[in-house]
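Minutes, project check-in

Agenda point 3 was the complex the collaborators sent over. CS summarized: two entities, 767 residues total, and the question is how they sit relative to each other. Sequences were read into the notes so everyone works from the same version.
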Amino acid sequence: MEGSERSEASAKWLDAHYDPVANLYTFSSCVALADLHGDGENKLIVGDLGTGQSNMKLKVYKGTTMLSENTLIDLPTGVVAFLMDTNEPRTPAVAVASGPYIYIYKNLRPYFKFTLPPLEVNPLEQDIWHQVKEDKIDHLTLKEMLESFRDKGDMPLSARSLRYLMLEPHEMEAFVNVHKMQTIKRQTVITCMATLNKNMADDDAVGCLVIGTENMEVCILDPEAFTVQAKLNLPSVAVFMDVTGQFDVEFRIIVACRNGNIYIIRRDSKRPKQCVELNSQPVGLVRLNRSIVVGCGKEMLHAYTQKGKKLWTIRLPAPITTMSLMDHKAKGFQAVLVALANSEVHLYKDKILINVTKTQGASNEAMLFYSVWNSYCPIHYGGGLIIKILKRTAVFEDKDTSPGPPLAQSIKLSIPKKTKLYVDQTLRERENAVAMHRAFQMDLYRLRLRAAREYAKALEASMAPVSADLQEPLKMNAVVQGIGPVFKLTLNVQNTSATRPAINLYVSFLYDEHLYSVKRAFFKVPMLVPGLTYPIVTFVESLSDRGASDTIKVFVLATGRRAPILTAHIHMPVSEGPVLA
Amino acid sequence: MGLFDKLAGWLGLKKKEVHVLCLGLDNSGKTTIINCLKPSNSQVQDIVPTIGFSIENFKTSGLSFTVFDMSGQGRYRNLWEHYYKEGQAIIFVVDSSDKLRMVVAKEELDTLLNHPDIKHRRIPILFFANKMDLKDALSSVKVSQMLCLENIKDKAWHICASNAIKGEGLQEGVDWLQDQIKAMKV
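CS then shared the predicted structure for the full assembly.
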């Protein structure tokens, strides 16, 4: 079964390359593929996150070899290749978004750095810092004022003020002295990036960058002048984006946001018209023909129309790590590649699972990426690079390859067999049913009577370790530890009432004085707070040198009452002291 | 027979005609190799990606070759099998600097060898590990390993490292091919 599955999977994909030590740490948003030199050969562009703090690199692969490596200053959040101009040859530029900047590379050399326009600063905040600069107010007043602005919250504070408010009191003055001379500004950060063709539908048309920012906006940039051409407001921060159409004619931006909603924006509207509410956070967004396929947490894959109507939902066997579109232009075939945490890559065409591939190596997470090489490159969590190429002859059938009913259905239930003994017994029951019933009922009456008698007796003597009194609900158990001659006796007393504490309780031990000596045979219990268990410890010494053992009785008493509330009988173990001695 | 052939060749009567298929992935150098084998006065300067296929002729000392220079682009590769019947020999060109698509070349070679028109005929296959001048090129031994050529048991094959721009290694391959075809005729 497994062998045939494997051969079928390998019948579709060729294992072109496997490098387990490629050392790539990235996400699918930071991977792009483009013909950077205009020589007809696509290069794989990877924005490598390095360790997360250092060693961020922009790596370019040609085939299996690394062509170039550029150091990045900050963590990349998106890498996109796009055509900036109509110059020949048509070599695309690479845009790397990190922080509030977009670094543009042409011919793999730094070419331009775009900075997002700074945001408006709260005028009151600006005023305060101005006063600090002129030494009119000290840093404690500054702190109070900033806190009041923050709590009023009509405009967020700048990064510097927030950093200041975080500091310990003794660090504040030094911080103010260092920073007060600089003008104060508020920056936002890019969260995702995509491209939008400017005025032609072709693949090699000039593209505009579309960026989602941390201050809940989507900006469309002009490809040549790098000015903000259009700005759209969102109710939340964009994390995944899909863009179709042309900027000058008609476009549609599908944005998955951090609040778990998907918004669909058209050209003529400044605010989203349609909204899809997901039941969990989106982890991937792919547009397949006319539907939007969204991978969610809780191992779900949903599809919606572009109007926001739900089409279908699939439950997956493992959480989704990343998603990508497989667009085989030559065959006119589009499908969604979904990488799962169990290192499988599923291929869905609409709601039909048409192919499953297992990536080799112990990858528990894969970034993947489909391209015009007819290949996809999962990049391991461990940093390895895999390239698989689709076979020319591979045909995906529109047939569901997901397995049928679960295996459990074909397992027979384990019903025990009946022997002759059982048959004889049923015969006997059939013959003597009346006598059996009467005898049993009689025994049951007796049993009830005896049980009630014993219960009444125990209640009278307060023998039970759980108090029957509704006024003083208490619970006690006793534990004996040790092998003797000295034992540790722990009483766990608990007040089980909802709100009433138990006060003025005493504990007393009753024992044979020839056999045992208890250090404190009578003492007061502290006030018992409801719900807590109080361990009360005493030490019991066995005096007998012949290894005799007896029962010790423990009573919990209350002042003004003769009968104990609780009683516990502790069967003391045989002291092994004399034997050991 | 050999003597007669030589005599016929010397008299310039008629060289034996052989149909050869030139296969390989796109951008591996098939057209460049064929161009380099042609007499210098009929060589072309600019070589562009082949569309569909083209038919070329060249002569060696003993044979006259008619080569079907097939396009190697993905969408034209299904044309190959229509010409398998006519082929009396195969030249398979591999870009030895393209490690990534070596598996694709192997896949195409496997489908070629398993095709009913090829499978049971003992036709010689000449491999060119082309572009050996590039700095990240694999050696011909490595290429033959990656293509698993040692598994071809029932056909005569030979692999040459070549540089089709300068023409290095081509003559050796064609000489081998000529010997094989002559041996086959006998």
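Noted in discussion: Residues 170-185 of chain B form the longest helix (16 residues).
Follow-up: revisit at the next meeting once the mutant set is ready.
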